[in-house]
Amino acid sequence: MLQARRSTVAGDDLWLVVGLGNPGPEYAGNRHNVGQMVLDELASRLSASFSSGAGRVNARVATGRATPGGPRFVLAKPNSYMNNSGGPVAALLSYYDASPSHLIVVHDELDIPFDTLRLKFGGGHGGHNGIRDIAAATGTSDFARVRVGIGRPPGRQSAADFVLRDFTPTERAALPNLLADAADAVELIATDGLTAAQQRFHAPPPSA
Hints:
The chain is of the alpha/beta class. The protein has a single domain (14-201), classed as Rossmann fold (3-Layer(aba) Sandwich). Helix content is 34%, strand content 18%. It contains six helices and six strands; from the N terminus they run βαββαββαβααα. It has helices at residues 34-46, 86-95, 129-138, 159-163, 169-192, 194-201, and strands at residues 14-19, 59-65, 72-78, 103-109, 117-121, 144-149. A hairpin with a 6-residue loop joins strand 2 and strand 3. Helix 1 crosses helix 5 and helix 2 (86-95) crosses helix 3 (129-138). It starts with 13 loop residues before the first strand and ends in a 7-residue tail after the last helix.
């Protein structure tokens, strides 16, 4: 049961960043876990480590600031499976006394080409069960999403099988830059706002 005590890191400059995925080493490299890969990049920047001590919120958590005096980040990886992400996220919002307006969810997106980011606030879940469950558990869809494109499966491969496969060697070569861009997007949303982040990451590539 969630303890009544609130976290000492709550405040107006706190941002809760949740990376969606499935728990366990067998899923760690899956396309479906790219949101948690982005959080690993962010934790590295914060010089922070994930702790399982936040069991009361059923998530592994790392906290810190990217820059001195900058916003405080709570990075969270739910211990639940993707489709049951809502309970841990609702508990995290309650424990840290955070507003959904300061929630950023990082997740994979089939309808966006690989190596592409799209950022949005609110709106529908687009068939993503993790987002669907978070909206249901928190009672709102008004939170920011960093949507990391993984593309559609080739041929007749099912989407369910595709997302639970690891990235190809070619994709893995490009993955570090994609994860860095997604981490940059999270930081920019917190410091300069969603519109500024969209202007940077939604811009078309320069013409040759």
